[in-house]
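1st attempt posting a full record on here, be nice pls
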Amino acid sequence: MTHDKISIAPEAGTAIGLQCPRLRRPPLDPSALTATPWDDPHAKARMGDAILSFIARGMPRSGFTKALYRRLSMMFGFIACYNQQGFWGTHFGTTDARAAFLEQIV
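the predicted structure (as tokens):
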């Protein structure tokens, strides 16, 4: 099933139920971002692209890096959970969890 720009496929084994391939391009433009004491515009664009790529690929466990965990656990009102695996399980372990994650960040 496809809804607007999000594809929802039945889950089987480790298959991911949500994919948003249009999020992958174009990459974020660093010139549109503002530097902060914590990150320069290029670092923000790289992380933003990494987050969008992770979402576009269906939020697979293999794509949930430590850097993504650290950033996402401090954004959008999320809490760190117990650890990286706990955060993934809570927010990406099921199609419903992924849909709730997307609703929270929009």
